[in-house]
Amino acid sequence: MGINEHESANERTTTNLKSSMIQCLGRWFPVFQWIQQYRRHWFWCDLSTGFTIVALHIPQGLAYGRLAGVEPIFGLYVSFFPVLIYTIFGTSRQISIGTFAVVSISCRELLSHYETITINYDVVRNQTNDVNKVELINVNGELMRPIDLLIVSSLVVGTILLLLRLFQLGWLVSILPDSLLSSFVVGTSLHVFTSQVYALIGMDRSNQSSNNDNIDLLRHFPLISSWNYIIKHLSTSMNRYTTILSTCTIVILFTVRNYVEPQIVQQLEKTKTKTQLILPIDMTVIVILTILSSVFDFNGQFEVENIPKITGSFTNIGTIPRLHLIPAVALNSILLALIIYVSTYSLERIFADKHDYTLDSNQELFALGISNVFCSFVSCYPCSGSLSRSVVQERIGGQTQLASFISAIMVGLFIAYGTGHLETTPKFVLSCTIIMALMGTMSKFSDIYHYWKCSTIDTIIWIGTFLSVTLFGVDHGLLVGLCLMSIIKIIQFIISIWNGRKDPKIQSSNP
């Protein structure tokens, strides 16, 4: 009897030890938690969602890579590697990690601080000479690819997020009001839209910074400076063929997204078929225009500019970050880390509340941090959660990060076998994709009416941050917005203390 009790106690100890180990693993590797809780009928939802999201990942990866100021292939890398890492370490089930317009435009602003040098070189391909253009940046006298600087930024961003996790500062996100994030996203969207106008009308922006007729005062206001340049050179630099094609493309994308897709869903609902249909119109348009550009030689006949040639699939990965460049990216990377965490966690919190599961803010810091650190060694610029893809992923029924994992595998296959067919892809079609993705972001402009009715303080923060981001740029505008918020919080704190001293009930509340 005593032996049986001893064996039973050993079994209980072993069971408790295994349970503790599983809990510990699940705390650091949440993938083990949701795999244990995975339900069989979720698989088909995740599978269909994964195949749908890849139709957004690929065009947005190409487009946001260009938006960040690097070759499109690096945008595809950001749509592949971080997704795999986040699947293991993340606690959100519906977030779509990868490229994000706000982060991409912040990366472009970082690169804009340095002189760009274009080098032409001849490449012998199929017994013909092709002229390739390579853009390098001059950082303190050292020439390098733009991605080399952004790789260091990704390392710094990831390190900052990991340090915040080390000190368990995930709660800091609750300090920042939603009005600050909303106005920042809308203001940034205006910069993203403006940056795409050049490609939409076929205008070369390389001469803008050195143009003599650009008023010196306007250089401190990038958005005004850009529109001043566009308007002045519209009649002489606009490519009418590019403008016509891009206008038609946007009309097609808008019509399908807002009219055709809802009509099909409505018809399916009449037949009692429950579905959330997302047509892969972005990818379809890119494929069609790439084929048409190749057949009719858009570049040679109409001077419609194509995206830079992609040299290989995974041949550009494996770069060691240049640590001596950390001082050059430190300030921008601190702001970028804040942008990435706040914007991503805000989305994740909405999905977690809707689907009734627990979200660990500190683990999210770790997941985003380790994703960015890892990606700095595989030629990626900083990654973040995407508003447009995440909303779609949740809407069409994605249950876990398996959907993101499936989409990442498909992106990886495209990088390996599909990028060689993109040589004739027009630049404007990627810009059209970005413009359509901005539709949802720009809709947050209506938040100002909500804040106007509900809170004077939030209204002041929204307007102040929006104007500062619009006028002074993404990074400087965010700094102004944070300073404005801090001043308001300090004033509120002082007023509350003053009122507390005048109120005898508050004075006597502490024994």
* Count of runs of 4 or more consecutive helical residues: 21
In terms of DSSP E residues, the strand content is 5-15%
What is the CA–CA distance across the termini?
59 Å
Query: What's the SSE pattern?
Result: HHHHHEHEEEHHHHHHHHEHHHHHHH
Strands of the widest sheet, in order across it, are 2-3-4
Query: Strand pairing plus helix content: what structural class?
Result: mainly alpha
Low-confidence stretches: 123-131, 505-511
The level of helicity is 55-70%
Q: Average pLDDT, to the nearest integer? A: 85
Number of domains: 1
Largest sheet, if any? 3 strands, antiparallel
Q: Tell me, briefly, the overall form.
A: globular
Instruction: Give me the count of strands.
Output: 5
Give a brief description.
Keywords: Membrane, Transmembrane, Transmembrane helix. It is built from 21 helices and five strands.
Word description of this protein:
This protein is mainly alpha-helical and 511 residues long. The protein has one domain (43-203, 238-495). It has helices at 2-28, 31-36, 42-67, 72-78, 81-89, 101-111, 146-166, 178-200, 222-237, 240-270, 281-296, 298-302, 326-355, 361-375, 387-395, 402-417, 427-442, 447-454, 456-472, 474-502, 504-507, and strands at residues 97-98, 115-125, 128-139, 142-144, 384-385. The protein has a three-stranded antiparallel sheet. The chain has a two-stranded antiparallel ribbon with strand order 1-5. β2 and β3 (128-139) form a beta hairpin. The longest helix has 31 residues, at 240-270. The radius of gyration is 25 Å and the shape is globular.
